[in-house]
Design brief:
Pfam families: tRNA-synt_1c (PF00749). GO terms for molecular function: ATP binding; glutamate-tRNA ligase activity; zinc ion binding. The chain has 2 domains: 131 residues, HUPs (Rossmann fold), CATH 3.40.50.620; 88 residues, Alpha-Beta Complex (Glutamyl-tRNA Synthetase, domain 3), CATH 3.90.800. It contains 9 helices and 10 strands. It is elongated.
Length: 309
């Protein structure tokens, strides 16, 4: 069982990957999650999602924490690191093994593509391949390299799963998880746990009630809701924020050259983030950081909490 913690009406979190400093896009998510927690007098946590250790940059976590502090976005507890929680993930994966929810898989990407093609299903370029369930009932002599979770209604049925959920900004959402994603990986061939596994276990262990994050992560939500249900965890409330786009029209990210924030004066960066979030409020040109954050919190509360989530 996940340890129980004192329940608060609201516990939110910001969960950056320490692959480099915060940029304009990641500040939008950080500010939105902080404002949402403060508007409802909740707790706000920071979690370093460094489970994919080969992608992480040494010292980036400290830079991120310093940048947050420069912006006045201070967490209510010290940050948690996924890389230090492997024992927890091992226990939780063992639980799923004992219940029959997970199985070993020996399929390569090439094999998955061939299986989909044989079914007349060709994935679009640059999209994730939906897993067709090839190893669900046995690896058939292939070496097992990864661990997948079943996207079925139960361990004794192959009935597909459709996930319906409501986003506080995007509204009603639905995905045929079995067809569009298929059985997804919880532990990779290299022995590392995946984002989907770690984030669901961590959100439950930290008793997260509200998740505010970038819209690019919305397509992960059905997988996480399915895994929450498999574990018997509560499902948090979700709000996916608008994205900051780069010059190429794609999401601004470290991969497409997003510049680290210049925060000697954090207010210009915060104002730009607030504009992306659609917040409208006036502050004097000589406002202090604290006064600006109070005004932003009031604007967020007016925009999102006239009806309590």
């Amino acid at each position: 069982m996940i340890p129980t913690k004192p329940q608060h009406r609201y516990i939110g979190r910001f969960a950056p990957s320490p692959t480099g400093p915060l940029h304009a896009g990641s500040l939008v998510a950080a500010l939105a999650s902080w404002l949402d927690a403060r508007a409802l007098k909740g707790r706000w946590l920071v979690r370093m999602e460094d489970v994919d250790s080969p992608r992480c940059v040494e010292g980036a976590d400290l830079i991120i924490m310093r940048q947050l502090a420069q912006c006045g976005l201070l967490p209510d507890e010290p940050p948690v690191y996924q890389s230090r929680r492997s024992a927890l993930y091992v226990r939780k994966l063992g639980q799923l093994h004992s219940q029959g929810w997970v199985y070993p898989c020996g399929c390569s990407r090439k094999a998955i593509a061939a299986a989909l093609e044989a079914q007349g299903r060709v994935a679009a370029r640059h999209t994730e391949l939906a897993y067709p369930g090839t190893c669900r009932h046995g690896v058939h002599g292939k070496p097992a390299t990864a661990t997948r979770v079943r996207t079925t209604v139960s361990v004794s049925s192959d009935e597909p799963v459709t996930i319906q959920w409501n986003d506080r900004r995007l509204g009603a959402q639905q995905q045929d998880l079995t067809l569009d994603v298929g059985d997804f990986v919880l532990k990779r061939a290299d022995g590392l746990f995946t984002y989907q596994m770690a984030v669901v276990v961590d959100d439950a262990e930290q008793a997260i009630t509200h998740i505010v994050r970038g819209e690019d992560l919305a397509d992960n939500t059905p997988r996480q809701i399915h895994l929450q249900r498999v574990f018997g965890f509560a499902t948090p409330k979700y709000l996916h924020t608008p994205l900051v786009l780069g010059e190429n029209g794609e999401k601004l990210s470290k991969q497409n050259g997003a510049a680290a924030l210049e925060l000697d004066d954090p207010l210009p960066a915060l104002r730009a983030a607030a504009q992306t979030l659609g917040l409208q409020f006036d502050t004097p040109a000589d406002t202090t950081l604290g006064d600006w954050l109070r005004s932003a919190t009031q604007a967020w509360a007016k925009q999102w909490h006239d009806h309590r989530p």
